[in-house]
Design brief:
mainly alpha; 209 residues
């Protein structure tokens, strides 16, 4: 139960962030590519890539300081139970940042009409997790899935970066980008709707924890 709850909460949080990809960021990047050129679009997407990386790192570190206490705030689990399963909780933490970054990079590939590559990478991700589960479930139990997920998402991110560099000739260098008020307003409006949807999923999960 602790395993499923931790992944559910972190997946929901990652989904809340990644909802921006298709609703605001990718359409704006396409608009910039048309109006100001590919370089400006690339800088815009890179800016949010590093913003997501920074926010993910900060949140993950904050959760890692006292992981059991963090999940105790957002669940009805006995804190002692979470402390007992502290390894599960700790290994679940990287899932948020890895999912946010991997999905964002996949959405960039899809926006550049490489639809099959994200699907193939996603399938490879699941296969690698399954391999870890089969190979280590006797010794690691549920941890085999979490460790496998960490490795699989890391490999997927590395593979996506390599594909972007070789196929799209992507330049990952960036500079500070001034996000227009119109874009900030769109982000705010989109996230209000996404927050309502996320809460509709989170509340039953919380009550059932």
């Amino acid at each position: 139960d602790v395993y499923y709850y931790c992944l559910s909460v972190l997946s929901l949080l990652a989904g809340f962030v990644n909802a921006l990809d298709s609703s605001v960021l990718i359409p704006e990047a396409i608009h910039l590519a048309t109006q100001k050129g590919r370089e400006e679009s690339m800088r815009f997407l890179n800016f949010f890539l590093y913003l997501f990386l920074g926010l993910s790192a900060i949140l993950t570190i904050a959760m890692a300081i006292r992981p059991a206490s963090f999940f105790a705030l957002f669940s009805r689990f006995d804190p002692a139970l979470l402390q007992t399963h502290s390894l599960i909780v700790a290994w679940a933490l990287p899932f948020f940042g890895l999912q946010v970054v991997s999905q964002y990079l996949s959405d960039i590939l899809s926006a550049h009409k490489h639809f099959s590559l994200p699907m193939a990478l996603g399938i490879s991700n699941r296969i690698l997790i399954l391999v870890f589960l089969i190979a280590f479930h006797r010794s690691l139990d549920v941890l085999s899935i979490l460790i496998g997920s960490t490795v699989a998402f890391s490999v997927q991110i590395a593979a996506t970066i390599w594909i972007m560099r070789t196929t799209l000739h992507w330049d990952f260098r960036t500079r500070w980008v001034t996000v227009e008020r119109r874009v900030r307003d769109n982000i705010g409006i989109a996230q209000v709707g996404n927050l309502a949807s996320s809460l509709a999923v989170f509340v039953p999960t919380f009550l059932l924890s």
